[in-house]
Design goal:
The complex is a heterodimer of chains A (324) and B (282).
Chain A: H1 2-15, E1 19-23, H2 32-37, E2 42-43, H3 49-60, E3 65-71, H4 80-88, E4 94-99, H5 117-122, E5 128-130, H6 135-147, E6 152-156, E7 177-180, E8 185-190, H7 194-206, E9 211-215, E10 218-220, H8 224-233, E11 236-244, H9 249-258, E12 266-272, H10 283-289, H11 294-305
Parallel strand pairs in A: 1-2, 1-3, 3-4, 4-6, 5-6, 8-9, 8-11, 11-12
Antiparallel strand pairs in A: 5-10, 7-9
Helix pairs in contact in A: 1-6, 3-4, 7-11
Chain B: H1 10-34, H2 39-44, H3 46-56, E1 71-74, H4 80-90, H5 130-143, E2 150-155, H6 162-173, E3 179-185, H7 194-198, H8 203-210, E4 213-218, H9 222-230, E5 240-245, H10 260-263, H11 268-279
Parallel strand pairs in B: 1-2, 2-3, 3-5, 4-5
Helix pairs in contact in B: 1-3, 1-4, 1-11, 3-4, 3-9, 5-6
Classes of the chains: A alpha/beta (324), B alpha/beta (282).
């Protein structure tokens, strides 16, 4: 995703001379082409994210479109007040980009786990929140946030994520992408876990469960219509994200469902428990210990919808997924 | 400092005095009516604002969005009453707007806001934001080959914020000599004197060490203020820092240099006596 972002940004910068890139002294090996080709519009204000974000607001208020770029929580939580006051209140054209959503930097430790960012960014007025599901979505999302006036947050994975989509997509901010049609249940995914969700769908098919898969790349504004259609047309909805169970995609979908007045639909959030992990592990390892695996989700889904096929386990550990 | 000869006439002095007096009277009325705080913080910078908005800033009240205007950012957003007062005085918006400052339904809150208020560039209130935003604007001006300048007014207490020093590093690195930081150094912050809470001295040396052109002035001496503003930038290729030594609560004898008037709102006899004193100046 990171490479897709930079490829797109290079093209955008070529077409639009008002596009700036500010980096928080991070991006070794990827920012150099931009820095070289657009040296005047590239700025590394150093390891100083608060200042970087304030500067970005100042440049944006002078008529430019400014990307701030760093990893994990640095461009978001570290400078949250600058984002809130300087960027959002002024409706400044600042596009915040974080590489390393979720456990992408797993082994680097909890400081580098971006697991509350979506909840926090989503709560800010004026902020558009985008978490593309694969490199193709990342490329389209980069263009889309430039076209959208005002503050945007773009949460990327890292490098080397697999492409999930086949070729061209119809990408519109605030509109979920339907990867697979399905009539039994709906899997709603946000961010880089999309590949896993596609695998989960494959596995469900083997058990005669036909799942609709939605990539909810835009968390805000949320595609409520896609959620409500899923509630009307399928018997269960599962929200899947590599983010805290509090306030992210699952929370957003739950809010829509709870106020929908539709007949009850099964609903469950697959997300990270609200804990800081002290165990070292890469992304896959940490996903596994937090239960974000195809096997675990499959088991829970089958237990919830009480299915045709024999259950694998009793599902006694469903409780583990609950908040706290 | 450049060697340009500065002339400063009695008429100029009177003009600034008159304007500063008006700012202080409006501030007192606004804060008294609203029962709000920070009268001392508005008074300490009133003389600086009077000069800035009379002869220094290239702004046009009839064209507040004029692209080539100088920008002023009140980073010490709690001093908003002073800014609102001078903006109204200069005709950016009707003076009547000051009447419901801080009151329910008003658009002038207790920390400066840009939203719907002509002449206000940036909203502040959380400290330590203004210098970064100003630096971004200064950089953009340079890139666009524009000659407008960015002024920002900081408080001394605000310089406890790390983000101020992040920006203080940044601006000289990028040679932003179109950026001017004015510190309203009244030496009293929220819970005590600056010396007691977190000593900033040697203050000028810190800015110099960071690469700024620095000039210390008496922030209540109009000649010194004007001279400083007329000789910007102090050094070509460097941002300028004016450390203005000021008195918290300046203008009302019983408020001067007292911590109490960071928060206390003048009511009853205090209000009447303060108003009398201000009206009798000149």
């Amino acid at each position: 995703m990171r490479n897709a972002f930079f490829d797109a940004l290079m093209k955008i910068a070529e077409e639009n001379e008002q596009v700036y890139l500010l980096v928080g002294d991070l991006g070794f090996g990827v920012v150099e082409p931009f820095a070289k080709k657009y040296s005047k519009r590239y700025l590394n204000p150093g390891v100083a994210e608060q200042n970087m974000t304030g500067i970005a607001a100042g440049i944006a208020l002078s008529g430019k479109t400014v990307f701030t770029y760093s990893i994990g929580n640095f461009p978001t939580i570290r400078c949250l007040e600058q984002i809130r006051n300087d960027v959002c209140y002024h409706k400044a054209n600042v596009k915040i980009v974080s590489v390393g959503g979720g456990y992408a930097y797993g082994s680097l430790g909890m400081t580098h786990h971006a697991i509350e960012d979506l909840a926090i960014m989503r709560s800010l007025p004026e902020m558009t929140v985008v978490a593309p599901g694969d490199p193709i979505e990342a490329e389209y999302a980069t263009r889309a946030v430039v076209e959208r006036t005002g503050p945007c947050y773009l949460r990327l994975g890292r490098a080397g994520e697999p492409v999930v989509h086949n070729g061209k997509i119809e990408f519109t901010l605030g509109k979920a992408l339907e990867l697979f049609k399905g009539t039994d249940i709906t899997l709603i995914s946000t961010g880089g876990i999309l590949k896993l969700v596609a695998e989960l769908r494959e596995r469900l098919l083997r058990d005669n469960i036909n799942a609709r898969v939605l990539s909810m790349h835009t968390l805000k504004p949320l595609d409520t219509e896609a959620i409500l259609s899923a509630a009307r047309e399928t018997e269960a909805i599962f929200a899947i994200e590599e983010h805290s169970i509090i306030g992210g995609l699952g929370g957003a979908v739950a809010e829509v469902l709870a106020e929908s007045n539709l007949p009850k639909v099964h609903f469950k959030r697959f997300a990270l428990p609200s804990v800081y992990t002290t165990i070292v592990g890469d992304q896959d390892y940490l996903r596994k210990i937090q239960g974000l695996t195809v096997e675990k989700m499959l088991k829970d889904i089958k237990q919830i919808i009480g299915h045709k096929k024999p259950m694998i386990n009793s599902g006694a550990d469903v409780k583990k997924y609950k908040e706290g | 400092m450049s060697k340009r000869r500065i002339t400063f006439s009695h008429a100029e002095e009177e003009k600034y005095k008159h304007r500063a007096k008006k700012i202080r009277i409006d501030v007192l009325k606004m804060i008294g009516r609203a029962k709000s705080a920070h009268v001392g913080s508005s008074f300490s910078m009133a003389d600086l604002l009077a000069v800035l908005y009379t002869d220094t800033l290239r702004v046009d009240p009839h064209k507040p969005e004029w692209p080539d205007r100088d920008r002023f950012i009140l980073s010490k957003g709690h001093g908003c009453a002073g800014l609102y007062a001078i903006l109204a005085e200069r005709g950016f918006f009707p003076k009547k707007w000051l009447d419901d400052f801080y009151l329910n339904g008003s658009h002038l809150p207790g920390h400066v806001t840009h939203s719907g208020i002509p002449g206000v560039e940036v909203s502040t209130g959380a400290l330590g934001h203004g210098l970064s935003i100003a630096s971004g604007m200064a950089l953009a001006a340079k890139h666009d080959n524009k000659s407008y300048r960015i002024f920002t007014m900081l408080s001394d207490g605000e310089c406890d914020e790390g983000s101020i020093w992040e920006a203080a590093l940044f601006a000289p690195h990028h040679k932003l000599d179109n950026l001017i930081a004015i510190v309203d150094y009244n030496k009293i912050q929220s819970l005590g004197t600056v010396k007691e809470v977190l000593n900033l001295d040697p203050f000028a040396d810190k800015w110099k060490a960071f690469g700024w052109g620095v000039h210390e002035i008496n922030g209540h001496d109009f000649k010194e203020i004007k001279e400083a503003f007329d000789t910007l930038p102090f050094t070509l290729g460097k941002p300028s820092c004016i450390i203005a030594h000021t008195i918290k609560g300046k203008g009302v004898s019983f408020m001067e240099n007292l911590l109490l008037w960071h928060y206390r709102s003048p009511q009853g006899d205090e209000f009447t006596n303060a108003l009398k004193e201000l009206e009798n100046t000149l």
